[in-house]
Write a structure and sequence with these properties.
CATH topology of the largest domain: Pathogenesis-related Protein p14a
Structural class: alpha+beta
Strand order of the largest sheet: 1-3-4-2
Largest sheet: 4 strands, mixed
Keywords: Signal
Distance between the termini: 65 Å
Low-confidence stretches: 1-24, 556-580
Bound molecules: 2-acetamido-2-deoxy-beta-D-glucopyranose
Number of strands: 18
Protein name: SCP domain-containing protein
């Protein structure tokens, strides 16, 4: 915050503040004086973590409506100090702090004990970990005299640096994230990005610590450590706020919170855990279609998070994925599971939490290769369950990928139903569940309803998730496409332009995989593209050997390499190429 802004805030206090300003000292000077004292002590006592105090409008806003009384309750993210006007001069403060620091250690620790229940007065201004300050004048009791009350955050616990003179730490060496050492004091890299309510990136740290605590406390086998997601940041940025949370609860969920502070988040969580079992269940049931507030942070299966701050309200909004459905762990205290014993692929146990083995390779959109194996797994499962004789495995097609690449969503819709059809999923990760939900809804319809459903969709360009179970499709390629501001993974599937679905009435008497198309063979119910498993009929290696021997004894034949045989590559070219490959290892 710049000088003008802080002056404006102070000027808004009106007459009382004019006095503060026209007195010995201005608020900006007050802060400046405090920070130079903090730096001085940091250097004098080798304090590694003394932070610069930033003026906080948020703290001033909290302070203004509060009525000054002798014993304010302690707060978890700020402490307070009351000062006389004359005491705002740093020379005055310095004298008093020096007096305190000169006390023998026993007396200091005795004074510290009382800090758990009340303010340490002006010593609060020298808690090295505090980073924000906001002050306003307040009437003192019934008298007309005013005092200056300051809130100092974000620490709710009082700490003071080692004043014995025995510290050997380097001043400014233990800075908060995004702060750097500037002449012994930890100074923010970008003051405008720091706020009393925290930085969006701090939330992930608080939340992961909380997840670890709960995993151990309740013996949860599958709590995953959250990874920051740039994809979510983009979604947050694009999200039309009027649209609300249209895309929510499919592959991500959301939560609003006030601060990134771990203590505050835990406090919010305890309001849930203090409820009776019936109330807990009701709360989850009532709100699982929208947001369960801070409880969303405890969904063990979530793996990604990103938060941003709404510029209108001071609140943060966080997206968590890739689960759209809320899952709660067993909080009955009866779980015998081992924390970290049920991690997803590519995650491993670390201190009772499932941590990505290589977090850089994980993303909200997931991996195409995972999706390919998942999709064929469910195609096989449905093929066996419904005795589908001709369910073909889908193989990735680079040609389809090339078709898809330049297309926008309108093009996809316009060009569908000729040699390919398409389906949309939200992410590669977790889409199998969405597909199952959708197809189950269809499969459970009666015969007429199914027919009606297909007919009503015949003029539509896609049968949505059912497309993924079209038994006759053999190739697939997917890519990200944006549609009305939301990014989807669009998959093209070929070669069928018409929609077909297998008999879902359980009346099929055929065996799964019994009617594979030519070139495909049955592998456990699914038609798989034929891969030659026999020895090749032509033994290229042997021929190469013979050719080499011949070359040693005979005149070389004219090079057939440069012959042009029209469009195709000539067979002889291929043959020679193969030989060359074997002989010269090119
Ligand atoms: C302000 O000063 C008066 C007298 O100097 C003293 O009685 C009072 O306790 C002081 N108030 C605070 C908050 O230190
Ligand atoms: C500080 O952060 C703000 C807000 O993100 C940004 O607009 C500004 O450019 C940053 N300033 C510097 C010096 O990086
Ligand atoms: C759940 O919703 C019902 C009806 O809308 C309401 O009466 C009840 O108080 C709600 N319970 C909770 C815990 O939110
Ligand atoms: C996971 O790690 C924690 C602590 O490192 C350990 O107590 C726990 O037994 C481990 N879980 C498994 C399944 O190995
Ligand atoms: C089939 O389902 C539809 C809609 O669920 C229903 O209206 C209809 O009566 C059902 N028909 C039969 C024959 O059960
Ligand atoms: C697809 O449907 C159209 C219209 O019903 C039909 O004319 C065409 O022959 C069908 N194509 C295939 C390959 O079945």
């Amino acid at each position: 915050m710049n000088l003008i802004q802080s002056l404006l805030i102070f000027l808004s206090f009106g007459a009382i503040n004019a006095q503060f300003i026209t007195g010995d000292i201005s608020p900006d000077k007050f802060r400046e004086g405090l920070n130079s004292l903090r730096r001085k002590y940091a250097k004098q006592y080798n304090v590694p973590n003394m932070h610069e105090l930033i003026w906080s409008k948020d703290l001033v806003n909290i302070l203004e409506p509060l009525v000054w009384g002798a014993n304010w309750p302690l707060h978890i993210t700020w402490r307070y100090a009351a000062l006389n006007y004359t005491e705002t001069a740093s020379s005055k403060i310095e004298t008093e702090v020096n007096d305190f620091l000169k006390k023998p250690p026993e007396e200091i620790s005795k004074a510290m004990e009382s800090s758990a229940i009340s303010s340490m007065k002006r010593m609060e201004l020298f808690n090295p970990l505090q980073r924000f300050i906001g002050c306003t004048p307040k009437p003192e009791g019934r008298s007309t005299r005013k005092i200056i009350v300051c809130l100092i955050g974000t620490e709710g616990k009082f700490t003071i640096f080692d004043s014995t003179g025995q510290s050997t730490s380097i001043p400014g060496s233990e800075s908060h994230k995004r702060y750097t050492n500037k002449d012994g004091l930890c100074v923010p890299n970008n003051e405008t990005e720091e706020s009393y309510y925290g930085h969006p990136e701090d939330i992930i740290e608080s939340v992961n610590q909380i997840r670890e605590e709960y995993s151990k406390k309740f013996n949860v086998p599958n709590v995953h450590q959250l990874i920051w997601s740039e994809d979510f940041l983009k979604i947050l940025k694009d999200m039309d706020r009027d649209n609300g949370f249209k895309g929510a609860c499919v592959t991500w969920r959301y939560v609003h919170i006030d601060t990134s502070n771990k203590g505050s988040i835990k406090n919010e969580l305890s309001t849930f855990f203090e409820k009776s079992d019936v109330e807990k269940r009701l709360f989850v049931r009532n709100n699982s279609d929208s947001t369960l507030d801070s409880l969303e942070f405890l969904n063990p299966l979530q793996k990604f998070i990103a938060c941003s701050r709404n510029s209108n309200t001071h609140r943060f909004i966080c997206l968590l994925g890739t689960e759209g459905k809320f899952t709660m762990f067993d909080y009955s205290h009866k779980s015998n599971e081992i924390p970290g014993s049920n991690c997803q692929k590519r995650y491993k146990n670390d201190s009772g939490v499932c941590v990505a083995i290589n977090s850089e390779e994980e993303s909200y959109f997931g991996r195409q290769s995972d999706f390919m194996s998942d999709i064929n797994q469910i195609r096989r499962r449905y093929a066996k369950e419904y005795r589908v004789p001709n369910m073909h495995a889908l193989t990735w097609s680079n040609e389809l990928a090339e078709v898809l690449d330049p297309l926008g969503m309108t093009d996809v819709r316009d060009q569908a139903k000729e040699t390919w059809r398409y389906g949309a999923i939200n992410t590669y990760d977790n889409s199998i569940y969405q597909i199952e939900v959708d197809v189950t809804r269809f499969f459970e319809m009666n015969r007429t309803a199914k027919k009606l459903d297909i007919e009503s969709s015949s003029d539509k360009t896609t049968m949505n998730k059912l497309e993924f179970l079209n038994p006759l499709q053999k190739t697939i390629a997917c890519g990200r496409k944006e549609d009305e501001g939301i990014t989807y993974v669009i998959c093209l599937m070929g070669p069928e332009g018409n929609f077909t679905i297998f008999d879902t009435t359980f009346q099929s008497q055929l065996a799964a995989g019994s009617k594979c198309h030519e070139g495909y063979y049955n592998e456990d119910g699914l038609c798989i593209v034929q891969i030659p498993t026999q020895e090749p009929i032509i033994d290229y290696r042997k021929m190469a050997e013979e050719e080499r021997n011949k070359a040693l004894t005979e005149e070389p034949e004219p090079e057939p390499l440069l012959e042009n045989h029209g469009n195709g590559i000539s067979l002889s070219y291929l043959f020679v190429f193969l030989l060359a490959n074997l002989i010269f290892n090119i």
